[in-house]
Give the backbone structure.
Amino acid sequence: MNFGITTFVTDEALVIGKKEGQSGINIDRFGNARLSVMQEDLDLPYDTPLEIGIRDEVIEARYVETFGSAEDGDLVAVPDSHWRLSLAVNRGNAARALLLSVGDEVRLKPSAETA
């Protein structure tokens, strides 16, 4: 099931939110939240710490190349086979852990510790 969303970059964060007539977001059978953001949109090196904003919460994550680069239970942003970013919990279910639904707004930005 897909809903329309749009992606735009601000000085502070990459924002993914609902907008009519745009490309989709979905949650796969493993609970990974596939975003409309392409890997190149993030323009960061692998292993960069990230702040993931969902609703009024900010959660620490890491941008990784593969699940093999993360420990079990780590929250990561990882490119999928089509070079789109997915929020995932290694050997877990990100949608369940983060209470994500299709169409939720998600904000990504480098963590303050990288500055």
